[in-house]
Amino acid sequence: MSDTPSLDSPIAELCREKGMKLTGQRRTIAHVLSESDDHPDVEELYRRAMAVDPRISIATVYRTVRLFEEHGILHRRDFGGGRARYERTDDHQHYHLIDIESGRVTEFEDAALEKLLETIAARMGYDLVSRRLELFGRARSRKSKA
Amino acid sequence: MSDTPSLDSPIAELCREKGMKLTGQRRTIAHVLSESDDHPDVEELYRRAMAVDPRISIATVYRTVRLFEEHGILHRRDFGGGRARYERTDDHQHYHLIDIESGRVTEFEDAALEKLLETIAARMGYDLVSRRLELFGRARSRKSKA
DNA sequence: CTACGTGCAAAGGCTTTGCTGAAGT
DNA sequence: ACTTCAGCAAAGCCTTTGCACGTAG
C-alpha cells in the first residue's frame, strides 16, 4: 500500500532527490508543508503534523525544518513576535504585508521595489545580498472593493 | 556639584519632562544612550552603563529600555540574531543597511522608497502603519572610493 | 548491519518578574 | 512618608541538544 514511493508529496520527493533519509516523520512533515500555503511557525507545524501522525515530537519538527532550510527547501522568516515562521522556498523574490488587526500575511512581488533596493544599496557602496521587508498595514474601510 | 539637574543628558531631560522618576540608574542609562549613535543591544548598553556606574544590574537595563520605549524615547529594532537592539527615536523615517561581513549598521533615508511602500500597501487595500526593512549587503570592491 | 533519526527531558539564550530592601519626590 | 525602583535569582518562552533506543537503506 505504500510501495509506490514516487507518490509522496512534492517536498518528500525533494528530500529523496537530495538524498536525505526519508523517515516517517519527515514524510509527514513534508506532506504537511506541501499542503501549506501560509507561513506557519513550528508550533503550528507540530499541530498539523500531529493531526496526521500523533507519534511525532516537537524536537523532530525543529530538527526537520532546520534540515529543510539547510537544503534550501524552506525559508525561515521572522515576522517579529519571537518565533520563526516557515514557507516553501519560492523562485520569485517576494515580500510580505501583515494585517495588523488579523495577523494575516499576504505576499506580494514588486519589480520596481526590488530594483530600487538594489539601487539604494549600490549608492551606498554595497552589493545587495539579501533584504528583509515587511509592511504592516490596516485594511482600508473599503468603499469600492467589498 | 550635582544640584544642577538641568545639566543632565538630553535623554535624562526627556525623562524629567515626561515625569518619570529620575533614579541614578536611569540617569546613567540615559547618559549612555545620549552618547550612543549606534544600535546597541541590552548587553552592550549594560556594559556601557557599568563603565559609568558598576552598581547597575542587567534587569534594570531591561526595565529601563522598555520604559523608555513605552515613553517614545527609544525604538526597539530587530536585526535578527534574537536580540533586540535600541536606538534613539528619530523624527525621520529611516532604514538600515547591515554590512554582512562586519555587522556594521548604516542608516539611510529615501523618500522615493517611502512613497513606493505606501503605494504598494494602498494598491493592496491597506494603509501603511509601519514597516520593517533591512538591507544586507557586501561592501563593493571599491575602485573609486578608497 | 550500520549510520542516522527520534523522543524525552534537560539545558541554553534572551527577556521578564516576584520579592525585599533601597531610594526619589 | 509613600510610592516607585533596583538587585537578585527564579521562571518563561523559543529553540537546541545529550543520550539511549529505533529505523531506513
TrEMBL record, chains A, B:
Cofactor note text: Binds 1 Mn(2+) or Fe(2+) ion per subunit.
In terms of domain of life, where is this protein from? Bacteria
Protein name, entry field: Ferric uptake regulation protein
- Species: Ameyamaea chiangmaiensis
Query: Family per UniProt?
Result: Belongs to the Fur family.
Would you tell me the Gene Ontology cellular component terms?
cytosol
Which one of the record's GO molecular function terms can you name?
transcription cis-regulatory region binding
Binding residues annotated for Fe cation, in chain numbering: E114
Q: Does the keyword Glycoprotein apply?
A: no
What InterPro entries does the record point to?
FUR, Fur_C, WH-like_DNA-bd_sf, WH_DNA-bd_sf
Q: Which GO terms describe its biological process?
A: negative regulation of DNA-templated transcription; regulation of secondary metabolite biosynthetic process
| Assembly behavior | Homodimer.
Q: Which cofactor does it need?
A: Mn(2+); Fe(2+)
Per UniProt, the keywords (alphabetical) are: Cytoplasm, DNA-binding, Iron, Metal-binding, Repressor, Transcription, Transcription regulation, Zinc
List where in the cell it is found. Cytoplasm
